[in-house]
Write a structure and sequence with these properties.
The protein has 271 residues and is mainly beta. It has one domain: monomeric porin ompg (Porin, Beta Barrel). Strands 1-2-3-6-7-8-9-10-11-12-13-14 form a twelve-stranded antiparallel beta barrel. β6 and β7 form a beta hairpin. It contains one helix and 14 strands.
Length: 271
């Protein structure tokens, strides 16, 4: 019988969905910081971007506070993206993930609410060491100052998630799509693909080291390459139900090199 995995940010994300946060309205920033909002579509155990199959369990709650700061060619993008996951059943979570964005260009800046993910996750199969899940939902236009989608728009997304768990090593893999209802520029894709994989290595009862790689389809039809990123991080369990984490991410095959620092604090409790 598959044991119930403990969800951390089962969140993903990070950065896949989060990387679409500004894609609809401000394409120039996305092209200069193609992976800056990592966040996911980061839905996995923060600071990872790859989602896992873990769920909270009935009447359990996880509150994750995720921060990221990305920089490229003098432009910085800082994002605070908390996530609240509530266990509706042993294998089903309801998830709400708002965001707040600080955007700084040379000589200009803006800040305000970003868009909000409203998701559900269902772990539909498990037999040790394997388990599979689906996470799907909508990105809703809640942003201010054009820091997201135009009012009234929404974007659907879905992830197929696989986890292989054989302590002390755990591997996660994702395949996902995002539908963008309004093209940010012409020519542009409206359906964007995503693939990612992550390895988590448990060192002891307090420390987990992580490595995560992802590829996201470029919104522009002029580019056939899929920009990607590589991330390394660590998760420290201060006490049961309380995790601290830090990570560093660097873009791969992007129009501009982007470096991102991530940090988070995750708290879990029962209702």
């Amino acid at each position: 019988m598959h044991r119930q995995a403990r969800s951390r940010r089962r969140h993903r994300p990070v950065h896949f969905f989060e990387s679409r946060l500004l894609a609809v309205r401000i394409l120039p920033l996305i092209l200069s910081l193609p992976l800056a909002c990592a966040a996911p579509f980061a839905f996995a155990a923060h600071p990872l971007q790859t989602e896992d199959t873990g769920t909270q369990g009935f009447a359990n709650v996880e509150i994750e506070n995720g921060f990221s700061r990305a920089s490229s060619d003098g432009t910085t993008l800082t994002t605070y993206q908390p996530q609240v996951s509530v266990g509706l059943a042993t294998t089903i979570d309801a998830i709400v993930q708002p965001s707040y964005v600080w955007q700084h260009f040379p000589g200009d800046s803006a800040s305000g609410l970003g868009d909000t993910n409203i998701d559900a996750k269902w772990r539909f199969w498990g037999s040790d060491p394997w388990s599979f899940a689906i996470r799907a939902g909508v990105l809703t236009a809640t942003s201010q100052h054009e820091l997201g989608m135009p009012r009234g728009d929404h974007s659907e997304h879905a992830l197929l998630v696989a986890t292989w768990d054989d302590t002390p090593t755990t591997v996660h893999a994702n395949i996902g799509v995002t539908y963008v209802p309004r093209a940010p520029a012409s020519p542009a894709r409206r359906v964007l693909g995503h693939v990612s994989a992550a390895v988590m290595q448990t060192i002891n009862e307090h420390l987990i080291l992580t490595v995560d790689g992802e590829l996201d389809q470029d919104p522009s039809t002029r580019r056939t390459a899929w920009p990607g990123s590589l991330l390394v991080g660590a998760i420290w369990t201060a006490r049961p139900g309380l995790d601290l984490d830090i990570g560093y991410q660097r873009s791969i095959d992007a129009t501009a090199v982007t470096q991102t620092w991530l940090a988070g604090l995750t708290y879990r409790f029962s209702l």
